[in-house]
Write a structure and sequence with these properties.
112 residues, alpha+beta, 4-stranded mixed β-sheet, two-stranded antiparallel sheet, 3 helices, 6 strands, elongated
């Protein structure tokens, strides 16, 4: 994996108070080097010249990783240094996914 001096920031997008709790309790402890594609709402790359370019998440084959950014920059033919990568996560989707998985996991142990 390439070496990055770029700041990588996780942001949370939510429409419910319940999902915002996920951000406070879980996302603050995550190192954003690899993120499941289905959790991502958007990604933007900001260059040193202040140009902001959206990263097309539809092109991801699997989880998002910093290696994907490296490939994106080569395809984009970027000449300026990357200052910031912002990854906005869909907290509503993450909350729903966690609830469904934990319910099905725990449910099989407590069924009548």
């Amino acid at each position: 994996m390439p070496s990055f001096s770029t700041k990588v920031v996780l942001l949370g997008k939510s429409t419910t108070k319940k999902s915002k709790q996920v951000h406070k309790e879980i996302l603050n402890n995550i190192q954003p080097t690899e993120v499941p594609k289905e959790f991502i709402d958007s990604i933007t790359v900001t260059f040193s010249n202040q140009e902001v370019v959206p990263f097309n998440i539809k092109n991801l084959k699997g989880n998002f990783s910093l290696e994907e950014v490296h490939d994106f920059l080569k395809e984009y033919k970027a000449t300026d240094k990357v200052e910031l990568i912002e990854i906005a996560l869909d907290l509503d989707y993450i909350t729903k996914d966690l609830e469904e998985k934990s319910s099905s996991f725990l449910g099989k142990h407590f069924e009548n």
